[in-house]
Amino acid sequence: MSKKIIIIGNTVAADIIYGLLNSDDRYEVVCFSVDKEYITETEKLGLQVIPIEDLKEKYNPGEHSVMLDTTMSTKPERRFSIE
């Protein structure tokens, strides 16, 4: 069974992460997610873009993991968890 991944970010770094994970059968990328004010498209690479604020409602934290693109993970004031 593949591990379900949510990619946090909508930059080129997120595209690269998607490409790497999508080519590995151990992972299933289920969506992209960013803060509501940074959503510029509702779909990215064929997957839905979900506001971070709505993740808990749509995806079970016990069944999904998150991967931050590098632009998100370098912002010390921004911490994220769907737990």
Describe the structure using short key phrases.
Rossmann fold; 83 residues; 5 strands; 3 helices
Structural class given helices, strands, pairing? Answer: alpha/beta
* Name of the CATH superfamily: NAD(P)-binding Rossmann-like Domain
Q: Please give the CATH architecture.
A: 3-Layer(aba) Sandwich
What's the CATH topology label? Rossmann fold
Q: How many helical stretches?
A: 3
Domain count: the total is: 1
Q: So what's the overall shape?
A: globular
Low-confidence stretches are none
Report the biggest beta sheet as strand number plus sense, adding barrel if it closes: 5 strands, mixed
Report how far apart the termini are.
21 Å
Helix content: 10-25%
Sequence of strands across the biggest β-sheet: 3-4-2-1-5
Number of strands: 5
Strand content: 25-35%
Question: What would your notes on this structure say?
Answer:
This protein has 83 residues and is an alpha/beta fold. The protein has a single domain, classed as Rossmann fold (3-Layer(aba) Sandwich), CATH 3.40.50.720. The protein has three helices and five strands. The chain has helices at 12-22, 55-58, 70-73, and strands at residues 3-8, 27-34, 43-44, 47-51, 64-68. The protein is globular, with a radius of gyration of 12 Å. The mean pLDDT is 86.
